[in-house]
Amino acid sequence: MEGREISKAVVTRLPRYYRYLEELLESGVERISSNELSVRMKVTASQIRQDLNNFGGFGQQGYGYNVKYLYTEIGKILGIDREHNLVIIGAGNLGQAIANYANFEKRGFIIKGMFDINPRLIGLVVRGIEIRGVDDLEQFIVDNNVQMAALTIPKTKAAEIADRLVDAGIKAIWNFARVDLNVPDDVVVENVHLSESLMRLSYRVCSMQDQEERMKNQEEGKHEKEREHRH
Ligand code: NAI
Hints:
- The protein is of the alpha/beta class.
- Helices cover 51% and strands 17% of the residues.
- It is built from 9 helices and 10 strands.
- The strands form 2 sheets. Strands 6-7-5-4-8-9-10 form a 7-stranded mixed beta sheet. It has a 3-stranded antiparallel beta sheet with strand order 1-3-2.
- Bound molecules: 1,4-dihydronicotinamide adenine dinucleotide.
- 1,4-dihydronicotinamide adenine dinucleotide binds at residues 89-95, 115-118, 121, 134, 152-155, 157, 161, 176-178, 192-195.
């Protein structure tokens, strides 16, 4: 499995498998078939088999998947069996909300520090994490062996800060600013845009409503024709 390339589509689905497997583990389930997992996750069993076969086929015929093993292996693939040191740039609403969420640590993401330019925020402590000024950003990154940064600043500031982060050795940016970042090939960016997700939700609810409307109109048209026919 080592060094094997896994498709982006599969990687996108792995965190969801991981979450379900964690729930199974917590409820004491030791093994599960692709069919059972399929019912729980509302994904076809063949998709599950295909996805999981991608990296070595953890399933055994007639036995199903060993939950603990699969959970551990997926964790390794996602790299959350290691610790990742992280900084948050922008200690406003969103930055503080992320800092306040203790569960990231459970996954190995250790928030080492937060940075802001607002003097009223500098020096404050959020869940044990001190907010610092950006002057010592580069030094802090090096001293604390920081690899990842969450960017929760206005989009107008994002490019400049991203450049500084990259120069300081940051390899992964969790970008919340509403702008696409230009970074070198050896730096990865994961964009998180809640409003895009909300727009997708809007599209889905609207197309559902439109379809209901069309069906209602068709039904009414049919009744209308029947009435005309009778007269
Ligand atoms: P906020 O105004 O509460 O926080 C932004 C913070 O960044 C402020 O404390 C400000 O002093 C600081 N800041 C500004 N320039 C800086 C710099 N050069 N270096 C360090 N810190 C700097 O805003 P909020 O609500 O926390 O949103 C933060 C950003 O995230 C905004 O760009 C917003 O548009 C975006 N956002 C994105 C979402 C998403 O789903 N991607 C959801 C909500 C907000």
